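sorry for the late reply, my laptop died twice this morning and i had to redo everyting from scratch. anyway the thing you sent over, i finally got around to it. pasting the sequence first so we're on the same page, its 153 residues, then the predicted structure underneath. double check i copied it right bc i was rushing
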Amino acid sequence: RFCKSANPMASLSFSSLVSSATNLSRSVSALAASTDAHLRQLDDEQTDAVDRIVQPPQRATFNSAAQRAEMHNRLTKQALAANAAGDIAEAASLFAQASGLDPRPTTILSHVNMRLKLGEYELAAACYERLLAGETLSETAWYIAAARHAEAL
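ok and here's the structure:
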């Protein structure tokens, strides 16, 4: 049975939705297994680098969350401008600084994207795997990370 609705998802049958959910669950399980295998191949220094990117140490010297958020937003705007201007190393540095103030998943993902653009494929792949295995990314960010992970391999 199919439902008629303006929502395209509503036209899917229940069994096709269950099938899609099952396939997504298998994909996530396979990704988690490949993440574990890949992280085991990294040496301690590389693993530390992944940890610093995905779980940045808090370097906040501001007194309030509002001040940290304001500085994070300022650094993120500067990083986006640097990326648009082609200064990828500067963009990566700025995203790292912003993540240290406020570790938002999208900022961390942007930092990893810059690492990929810099040709740091192994590091980027490991970071994407860690992000994909966690539960901090929105659905859209998860799909972006999955696509970029494929590029990094």
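The radius of gyration is 18 Å.
thats about all i looked at so far, will dig more tmrw
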